[in-house]
Amino acid sequence: MSQEINQNGIFRGQILEFGLYEPESGAVGVSVKARIDEQWNTETKAWDDWREYDVTADGTVWVIKKDGSLNDKQVESLIKATGWDGNIEAVRNGEWQPTPCQLVVNEDTYKDEVRYKISFVNEYDRTPGAVGNVSPDRAKQLQTQYGAQLRALAGNVLRNAAPPAGKPKAPKPAAKPATKTAGPMTQDARKALAGAASSAVDPNDALAEAGSGEDVPF
Question: Which range, 130-134, 158-162, 179-183, has the best average confidence (pLDDT)?
C-alpha cells in the first residue's frame, strides 16, 4: 500500500490520476495524484531513487484564477512538463495522457493541519535550481550564430575601457632611527662622543669604552 509524501522537495514521477476542480472562489485547477519515483538531492546534485518506498503525492495546478483570467505560468508549466494540449474536456473526460514530469511539493497548512501538496510541475529533465532554460543544443546554436559578433563587441569594450587612474606611489623609505641613550650621560661619555664625531670611531663603541667602569645605563 502506498504512503503519502511527508516532506517538501522536488521529485520526479508519473501522474496517475487527474481531474478538474472548481471551488466556490471561481478558480479552476487540474487536480493530480502522482507516483514519486525520485527525489532531487540538494547536496549531491543528483536524483535519489525512491521507487522502493511506494510514495504518492497529490495537489492542484491552478490554470484559471478566481478573477477568471488564465494563470499563465501554471498553464505553461503544465503544457511543457506533461504534454497537455490545453484541452480542458480531455482532463474532465480522462482522455489526457500526461508524460512523466517533475513535481514541486510544498508544505500546506489547512485548518491547523500540515499537509504536503504538489504546487507546481516542471519538465522532467530540468535541472532544479537552474536559473536559465536554454538547452545545450540551443546554446551551441546561439554561439554559432552570434559568437563572432559578441567576441568583437567584447574586444571593443575592453580596448575602450578607461585606464586605471595612476599607479600608487611607492612608500618612502623609513628614516634611520637616531642613536638613543638612556638616562643621564657622564662627562667622559660626552667627551667620547665629541671625539668620535671627528674620527672614524663608531659613537656607540666610543660610549662603550667611556662607560667601562662607569655607571652609564643603556
Answer: 158-162
